[in-house]
Amino acid sequence: xxxxxxxxxxxxxxxxxxxxxxxxxxxxxxxxxxxxxxxxxxxxxxxxxxxxxxxxxxxxxxxxxxxxxxxxxxxxxxxxxxxxxxxxxxxxxxxxxxxxxxxxxxxxxxxxxxxxxxxxxxxxxxxxxxxxxxxxxxxxxxxxxxxxxxxxxxxxxxxxxxxxxxxxxxxxxxxxxxxxxxxxxxxxxxxxxxxxxxxxxxxxxxxxxxxxxxxxxxxxxxxxxxxxxxxxxxxxxxxxxxxxxxxxxxxxxxxxxxxxxxxxxxxxxxxxxxxxxxxxxxxxxxxxxxxxxxxxxxxxxxxxxxxxxxxxxxxxxxxxxxxxxxxxxxxxxxxxxxxxxxxxxxxxxxxxxxxxxxxxxxxxxxxxxxxxxxxxxxxxxxxxxxxxxxxxxxxxxxxxxxxxxxxxxxxxxxxxxxxxxxxxxxxxxxxxxxxxxxxxxxxxxxxxxxxx
Length: 452
Hints:
Blueprint: E1 3-7, E2 23-25, E3 30-31, E4 35-47, E5 51-62, E6 65-71, E7 84-87, H1 100-108, H2 116-123, H3 130-145, H4 155-167, E8 178-181, E9 184-188, E10 192-200, E11 205-210, E12 216-218, E13 227-228, E14 233-237, E15 245-256, E16 262-265, E17 273-277, E18 280-292, E19 298-305, E20 310-317, E21 323-327, E22 330-334, E23 339-345, E24 351-357, E25 363-369, H5 385-393, E26 398-399, H6 407-410, E27 428-429, E28 441-445
Parallel strand pairs: 2-25, 9-18
Antiparallel strand pairs: 1-28, 3-18, 4-5, 5-6, 6-17, 7-16, 8-10, 10-14, 11-13, 11-15, 12-14, 15-18, 16-17, 19-20, 20-23, 21-22, 21-24, 24-25, 26-27
Signal peptide: 1-26
Transmembrane segments: 424-443
Region (Disordered): 397-418
């Protein structure tokens, strides 16, 4: 039977997603982008239900820096041109995984956080190459992320993977690189709107505040601020009697993205990755504030809810009169000074676009994809020639995004149903970023006439 090659792990990372007054991604309010690099280190291993594939690390390139990721969603497929963003564990395939803390321990005690030689000493083995270290780490991660035991013919790789699995203990989730929460606040003129809480692993972040004259960004003591640190609370101070208006807050810093942060596709049912190796990169976050001297003053925020299967949309009224929010096909009346949360059901893997409308032309949309559950063994990876062709053709301004596996990782490209000149990853537009994840080349037996 013919062997088909399918790209299983592709992604991009964004330390949150830019929040605008009219459109936002649920849960996230910062942004950073990266492009796909080459397979860095790994080995060909046997994967239950699927055959052979490459286990190891892949480079993420951002601002000249090279980061590394592993796969935590083995049996899901992906397509080129998919854009990814950083997300919390509770909004990812780790949401219902009791062993997710053990994956974090593995990342903190294995390659590339530890060098191959240091990992060899910890695991009590002799010489350990980077390829063996990366493959062993990926195998151990899959043991907990997908309940799958991939196997290597390399005895050293197997020994290290077993050591990681046996010694892993639960470790807490790392904090976001940068976030502002909530991303939208509202109140009356004369009020101090907020708080907006800064969460970051950086020592400090720079703040840029754009607002009408007289409106200030202040701390809890009412002092004007231009920078902030982790857990700092910010407020928008609006003069009494000020006309209705809006202020924009942006935060930025250079920081190393925390190892263990999950990254999932903004659209579509594509494979989820986790950050393994890091370097300083530029990250950004944004929030807005609305006010008026009287009447209703609406705000809306959203969070993906993996437990209930949908999007929790929270609408707030910072004014002195009630307002009725239209949330998709549902409506809810919000009393002055109150908040209401509505669950908008979303099917697993589906893309959503939920718009909230209200008085005085208020409108805000939340977009994304609900990706909470990993596919069990025997899932169908998908990276068809038509997918890559579509991504390439839609790019009005393309860049080269080569996915060139190292010989040690894959042993060369397998035969596909398409011409050998058809790349698995094509050039994509600058607005579409492509990222590699743990398993890059996935080999599986053809099922019926399906070549992917």
